[in-house]
Amino acid sequence: MAWTVRALAETLGLEFTGDGATELARVASVEQAGPDCLTFVSRPSFLESLAETRAGAVILAPAHAERAHCAVLLAENPYAAYARAAQLLHPARVRPSGIHCSAIVDAGVRLADSVSIGPGAVVEEGAEIGPGAVISARAFVGAGARIGAESRLGEGSIVCHGCEVGRACTVQPGAVIGADGFGFARDGDAWVKIPQIGRVVIGDGVEIGANTTIDRGALDDTVIGDGVILDNQIQIAHNVRIGDHTAMAGCVGVAGSAVIGRRCTVGGAAVILGHLEIVDDVHITAMSLVTKSITLAGTYSSGTPLESNAEWRRNAARFRQLDTLARRVNALEKNKPGEES
Amino acid sequence: MAWTVRALAETLGLEFTGDGATELARVASVEQAGPDCLTFVSRPSFLESLAETRAGAVILAPAHAERAHCAVLLAENPYAAYARAAQLLHPARVRPSGIHCSAIVDAGVRLADSVSIGPGAVVEEGAEIGPGAVISARAFVGAGARIGAESRLGEGSIVCHGCEVGRACTVQPGAVIGADGFGFARDGDAWVKIPQIGRVVIGDGVEIGANTTIDRGALDDTVIGDGVILDNQIQIAHNVRIGDHTAMAGCVGVAGSAVIGRRCTVGGAAVILGHLEIVDDVHITAMSLVTKSITLAGTYSSGTPLESNAEWRRNAARFRQLDTLARRVNALEKNKPGEES
Amino acid sequence: MAWTVRALAETLGLEFTGDGATELARVASVEQAGPDCLTFVSRPSFLESLAETRAGAVILAPAHAERAHCAVLLAENPYAAYARAAQLLHPARVRPSGIHCSAIVDAGVRLADSVSIGPGAVVEEGAEIGPGAVISARAFVGAGARIGAESRLGEGSIVCHGCEVGRACTVQPGAVIGADGFGFARDGDAWVKIPQIGRVVIGDGVEIGANTTIDRGALDDTVIGDGVILDNQIQIAHNVRIGDHTAMAGCVGVAGSAVIGRRCTVGGAAVILGHLEIVDDVHITAMSLVTKSITLAGTYSSGTPLESNAEWRRNAARFRQLDTLARRVNALEKNKPGEES
After folding, report:
1. Distance from CA of B18 to the nearest CA of A (A)
2. Is C283 one of the catalytic residues?
3. Given Cys at both, which of A16, A281, B206, C172 links B179, Cβ 3.0 to 4.6 Å?
4. Alpha carbon of A29: minimum distance to chain C alpha carbons (Å)
5. Catalytic residue, candidates B64, B69, B238, B245
6. Residue among B15, B95, B289, B250 at smallest CA distance from A303
7. Which one of B120, B160, B318 has the shortest CB-CB distance to C173?
8. CB-neighbour burial class of residue A321 (10 A; exposed 0-12, middle 13-18, buried 19+)
9. A3-89 and A98-300 have identical folds
10. What are A131-135's contacts with CB under 8 Å, separation 24+?
């Protein structure tokens, strides 16, 4: 989908310099861009690469505009402007509206205009699909579930009965929204299952990654705020609440009833235990374990650094003696070597 | 589904006090319960909240019965009684028995009475589905697999050829039971695949979480005991054996041929390496790594506590010097500061 | 599928001793093998078990051939020879070639000879399926995707539009290849999605585990080399490149743009951060976190060893004081107890 520099600038509300008639067909990296490509540079350290780019246009902060010898789109936040430009140059695949003959859509489903329901998809009774929504091949929408306008359910994704997905959300393939929460009461040796009667309620503009799972609430709902982005293979347990614009990388696990603030970021494979609270603007680094509430914005970590296995073995063995070591240092400080404080 | 207090008490085999004619329509938390709600209190510290509840009835231990001003169901284990009462008030959605016209069921499949097979489900030749079992939309049952009475396969879940699921099991959506184990022999640079000819055999009353995977055995079977409960996104490798009533939280990984005892609990994202044995009643805390057999019941952990990233950086850097530090303390204790022992 | 010892030896290019007419129907462990079973011993420590085996034949290194009292297939690498023999004795289930009547295959799809497309599978326009490939029940092949000769897509697996799977690959059930990479630009509080226009390109002889996810590239492709083996529940982010014959155990996560060498092994639940490089022949132990490039072949680890929770609590508390402790030891070495260096 070709755009001129001028048309892009107008649509995105940006100023530009250079030849506004330059036609752009796609985005590319600075190194690989050709004359029909749009690229961007946001970090000053990459500005030097502009000298050799063959790009037709580049998005730059106004302060760096003079560094390019091609057309320039001026943006205070070049990366965000690039993202929006890329959406225009590379729109999501258009799905023909209508219901594929092999889809199984209950008679009582409320379908808005321009809905696309793909081959083998299943939509149960009482579900509601908003205008322009796409239910891809083999996706499943359970009884009474609601899918908001312009949202897309990827291939084979599952939205269980009664759950709600907001507007302009993307659910990647294989995600499962609204399976039973893991609620059991112990009775002697056995576990007695507690019916999970809450829902999952997902806000607007949310991204849910491939094979990510979000469980329905036990009594109340599991709630995902507006603009939340979740990568692949994430597990969100029942009754979790995630604040607006929080982002989680792949393989994160969040246990039941955790409440996570807005604008947080959670690194890959980090785990957040249940029944705790994390305030806004908290950042958890990859593979950290959060065992207590976090009441102060900031960055938090746990774990040990990577080492050669030989060094690690020596140090890890000492970890098991760490309390004793500390006591021995206490004793030394009291000038009584060898005696424990 | 409304129940009177008296009917609930009789069905659950519990005594009650107060108005047995009180009608209960659903369960709710103590705070949110209305007059048609059943609630419960199990921890003494929550007893004070009873003063203000509007619940129609509450489940309490006999010792606390006088604390409520509504009908009381008396149970030694209020939480377990609550779970059972909730099952009665909120029964699983009834699925019409019969085979949906879009399901693909091989002619040679043995279907018991009252089986429900949903839209787009696939059941291959020689499979056996027990009475009252539910095969949800788009679920897959492979050739010769057996699904026990009253078990439910969630939407899009997969039970591969020859595997067995016991009675009254719940397999959540997207779970995969019986994919090939990860068995390869190294030959120079290359890996040669070893056919995985064992099965997965799952006991009775087992819960398998959404997108959880349980691999088939290499030669023998992978075995999941009765009453085991597995949360979402868990990986169980080939030839693992899990004892009855063991519970695993989300994102746990268990490597090949590990043998895990009964009544164990494994915290979220913990990993258990292969070819080791864990006795009964072992508890592993979240994100711990089990690298050796555990021969004594108890609770086990690994990892480091969460800190601010600034503090963590300082301490983690010292972890790499830990063996040296310990040697320096040895030297100090010998009154030879600075000299290594 | 029965083979004589002689036929197996000829097919595998191995010498044998003993009765070449011995008929073998299956493989089994040394302990459980009967007269129609083939077994193997590769580790000298297991040679004693040969005295009591009832196996019809055993694969041994030539040096140990005299230890068996049954037929012996001689192989320098008994385990690899066993794997190949097991493939002959237990061939993958033959799928009838042809398209199941319930599969939805676009008119424009290019299907080679002997392709098998199972019930409920969906193959979109412009896809290409190579000779002998198997698309199992409910699998999905997106528009323009290519599946190489003799490759198998498991039940419910998903290969998104434009992605390529090489020859003789196995994609286990529930795997998702080619979902969008997790690419977003921050704009104030919000995240702006960056279209992911790259593909996933998978080499020959690759194994992809159940529910594993491999994201498509942002601009360039995500590339999986020949002979790579990936276990279940692995997450491979956009633009990752994995070298030939590298193996990853279950639950591993690899973040965006990481480049991993050839013949590496990555233990279960290890995490590799993004935009780093790992050379050939690196081995990462289970649950380690790789935060920097690794430029030297070898084995690497992070984490702390498992302890009883009581001991762990004491030691973990000291970890938070580790920098202070080290400073106190510095001070002691300067003979100024209590004073920080």
Report:
1. 25
2. no
3. C172
4. 7
5. B238
6. B289
7. B160
8. middle
9. no
10. A134/A95, A135/A103
Smallest Cα–Cα separation from B211: which of B177, B237, B161, B257? B177
Provide the sign of the torsion angle of the four alpha carbons B99, B102, B105, B107, taken in this order: positive
CB B125 within 8 Å of CB B142: no
* Cα of C310 to nearest chain B Cα, Å: 8
Residues near A8 by beta carbon (within 8 Å), at least 6 away in sequence:
A14, A16, A24, A38, A57, A73, A85, A88
Residue B20's CB is within 10 A of a number of other CB atoms, namely: 15
Q: What is the DSSP string of A118-184?
A: -TT-EE-TT-EE-TT-EE-TT-EE-TT-EE-TT-EEPTT-EE-TT-EE-TT-EE-TT-EEEEPP--E
Residue A77 corresponds to which amino acid?
N
Cα A242 to Cα A245: distance, rounded to the nearest angstrom = 9
Is 0.85 exceeded by the ipTM?
Answer: yes
Residue of C nearest to B302 (CA): C306
Given C90, C100, C238, C283, the catalytic residue? C238
Q: How many residues does chain C have?
A: 341
What's the Cα-to-Cα distance from B142 to each of A217, B122, B157, C155, C173, rounded to whole Å? 32, 8, 11, 9, 12
CATH architecture observed for domain A3-89: 3-Layer(aba) Sandwich (3.40)
Enumerate the domain spans of chain A: 3-89, 98-300, 309-341
Q: Which residues of A are catalytic?
A: 238
Interface test with B, best of A124, A302, A332 (most B CBs within 10 A): A302
| Cβ-defined contact of B251 to C251 (cutoff 8 Å) | yes
Q: Which two tokens stand for residue A206?
A: 């949310």
Residues in chain A within 8 Å Cβ distance of B205: 190
The CA angle B313-C275-A278, to the nearest 5 degrees, is 50
The angle, 0 to 180 degrees and rounded to 10, between the axes of the packed helices B5-12 and B78-89 is: 120
Give the closest-approach CA distance of A219 to chain C in angstroms.
Answer: 29
341 residues of chain C, pLDDT tens digit each: 799 999 999 999 999 999 999 999 999 999 999 999 999 999 888 899 999 999 999 999 999 999 999 999 999 999 999 999 999 999 988 888 999 999 999 999 999 999 999 999 999 999 999 999 999 999 999 999 999 999 999 999 999 999 999 999 999 999 999 999 999 999 999 999 999 999 999 999 999 999 999 999 999 999 999 999 999 999 999 999 999 999 999 999 999 999 999 999 999 999 999 999 999 999 999 999 999 999 999 999 999 999 999 999 999 999 999 999 999 999 999 975 444 44
C195: nearest CB among A32, A87, A320: A87
State the CATH architecture for A98-300.
3 Solenoid (2.160)
Interchain CB distance below 8 Å, B173 and A176: yes
Q: Considering CB atoms only, which of C269, C304, C329 is closest to B303?
A: C304
For residue B145, which of B216, B210, B60 has the smallest C-alpha distance? B216
Judged by CB atoms closer than 8 Å, whether chains meet at A173 and C174 is answered as: no
**Distance in angstroms (rounded) separating the CA atoms of residues A318 and B302:** 13
Contact A266, C203 (CB under 8 A): no
